[in-house]
Amino acid sequence: MKAVALTLLAATLLSGCVNNQSPTGRGQTLLFSDAQMQQMGAQSFETMKQSEKISQNKAQTDYVNCIAERIVAVLPDQSQQWNVVLFESDQINAFALPGGHIGVYTGLLNVAADQDQLATVMGHEVAHVLAQHGNEQVSRAQLTGLGMQVADAAIGASGVANKDLYMAALGLGANVGIILPFGRSQESEADIVGLELMAKAGFNPEKSITLWQNMAKAGGDQGPELLSTHPSHSHRIEDLQAAQNQVMPLYTQARKQSLTECKIAQVK
Fold first, then answer.
1. Quick one: signal sequence residues (predicted)?
2. Catalytic pick from 52, 69, 125, 238?
3. Contact at 8 Å (CB) between 187 and 230?
């Protein structure tokens, strides 16, 4: 009877799934609604804020917020409120979650040397959200049964079932001890979408190449955690170089506007 019940529930989930296209035209199967994804994102972000140390460095926090505000200002959905937290950690990492949540680790500031380089990473992470990669990953996990029972798919008032696995699917796997990374096609897609976002926000897309060169050097042969599931450094840089002609007009147009330059204020 249990097997029959799970089969029926699986059929219900599949009948309600959405066949979507990513920003680059790649097919996606999405099982979860926007409201469900926002709930997962909100709960995951609260967990991160409780488990990670939040930075008290106002200058660095203002700097990160400045970059985030410019990126958010060019997003298609201006009704979504975004909140940003700078976490005190040596991790060279950042993330963005459905529902408007961005996390940046102070360790990233040691590698992303200026506003343009940091905007590269933040734009990339926000692009994962815009492209619904989290929904795609959670759906894939549900369908392939990576440690989950199909019966746990329902999200009720008590919260999100299998919280750690959903966090992993949202790109927080290393933080919860479960590896469920974005795929390389998703990472490459986030690179290109993120490049467009940073250019529209007036950040120099040419600096994206410098950033990933710096990232490739960081942490020795393995590189930082942020790169662990990404395309090879050379492949990524080649793709970014090929996209420069496409995004530079966006950058040129954005620079005609009055933009707030983002810098870390010097303590007097």
1. 1-20
2. 125
3. yes
